[in-house]
Amino acid sequence: MISDEGSQTVRSVVDGIASLGGEAHVLRAADLPETGRVAFGDEERRILAGGVEVDLALCTGVWMWHDDPPAAPDADPATARYVRREWDLALMAFAALTPRAHWINHPESARWIESNKLEQMRVAEHVGYDVPPTLLSNDVDRIMAFADRFGAVAVKSQGAAWRERPDGQVEAAYTQRCTSSELREHGRALARAPVIVQPYLDKAYELRVTVVDDTAFFCRIDSQASERTQIDWRRYDHARVAHELVEPPREDVQRALALVRASGLRYAAFDLLCTPDDRTYFLDLNPSGQFAWIEALTNAPIVRTLSGALLSPAR
Predict the structure, then answer these.
(1) Per-residue pLDDT of the chain (315 residues; tens, 9 = 90+)
(2) How many domains does the structure of the chain reveal?
(3) Terminal CA-to-CA distance of the chain, rounded, Å?
(4) 153/143 Cα distance (integer angstroms)
(5) Contact by Cβ (8 Å): 75, 83
(6) What gap in Å lies between CA 65 and CA 125, rounded to an integer?
(7) Do 215 and 119 lie in a common domain?
(8) Are 120 and 226 within one domain?
(9) Which of 17, 63, 167, 232 is the most exposed place for a label (fewest CB within 10 A)?
(10) How far apart are alpha carbons 24 and 17 in whole angstroms?
């Protein structure tokens, strides 16, 4: 596992693999310049992970999960850049030397789809999902014209965005509901960087879909039950917002599996918006989407399914 061994999610998967008779080792990429050891040659392919030397020939699965890149904080800037680059390249070699089917997810596919929201939407439409009209722009006039068409729009960043407040607390950038007049007040800020703009759609509820190989878990999130989560359920209000595991029609499951496969992934979590008139829209996909809270609230066996997948390479 290329991740942070201190993560509760990672520990749960390590335990899940052990419960199935397997053995897991955690490699923290940020520590590689200080403690990492690799030997990739004609006759051996070994990497030191979690204090244990692992023979890649015996490895059935590799899981990349929310890890920081290699770091060399004690070196001068030029040396730090060199060390980070060489370890990044070594990790790319690791990916090349390990069968693609062993990865959840292969870094090439994961990085491409995670960083490209428009590609996510293209793939979603290809497999049969409805996608809201979408504008990616920092052109204020075009953003205003788009907002005028729909009255109210949802404005979101292309990727996860965080900032540290003066009090030291970390604050996330959530989806915002804006009218065209509200956007005009922030024209200069909108011009600084591209944002994604879509018509704001009324919601009946939302679905968080978690896919592991050929298994899909559909969790209904009643986001409209709390004012806090009506626009973006990631603001979380578990006391008021029900989470329920649901059994969708077979064609919905097949479409979910097709989306993840077409994205070049074995694991993904993605979000669907369901309107009061029973239309469903694809919003967003994350190849490293969180799932622990879904399992905790619904008892969906995601950890066990993921653990089994890491012990059984994709066909």
Answers:
(1) 898 777 899 999 999 999 999 999 998 888 888 888 999 988 888 988 767 888 888 899 999 998 888 888 777 889 999 999 999 999 999 999 889 999 999 999 999 999 899 999 999 999 999 999 999 999 999 999 999 999 899 999 988 766 666 776 666 778 889 998 888 888 788 889 999 999 999 999 999 999 999 999 999 999 999 999 998 888 889 999 999 999 999 999 999 999 999 999 999 999 999 999 999 999 999 999 999 999 999 999 999 999 999 999 775
(2) 3
(3) 20
(4) 10
(5) yes
(6) 27
(7) yes
(8) yes
(9) 167
(10) 7
What secondary structure does DSSP assign to the chain, as a single string?
-BS-TT-HHHHHHHHHHHHTT-----B-GGGHHHH--EEESSS-EEEEETTEEEEGGG---EEB-S-PPP--TTS-HHHHHHHHHHHHHHHHHHHHHS-GGGEET-HHHHHHHHT-HHHHHHHHHHTT-B----EEE--HHHHHHHHHHHSEEEEE-SS--EEE-TTS-EEE---EEEEHHHHHTTHHHHTTS-EEEEEPPP-SEEEEEEEETTEEEEEEE-GGGSGGGSS-GGG--TTTS-EEEE---HHHHHHHHHHHHHTT-SEEEEEEEE-TTS-EEEEEEETT---HHHHHHH---HHHHHHHHHTS---
* Nearest of 291, 270, 266 to residue 281 by alpha carbon: 270
Count of positions (residues) in the chain: 315
Please tell me the number of Cα atoms within 13 Å of 67 on its side-chain side. 22
Domain that holds residue 149: 135-199
Whether residues 167 and 254 share a domain: the answer is no
Clarify whether residues 221 and 296 are in a common domain: yes
- pTM of the prediction? 0.91
CA–CA separation, 196 vs 142, rounded Å?
12
In-domain check, residue 2: no
Which of 75, 98, 121 is the endpoint of a domain? 98
State the Rg of the chain over Cα. Answer: 21
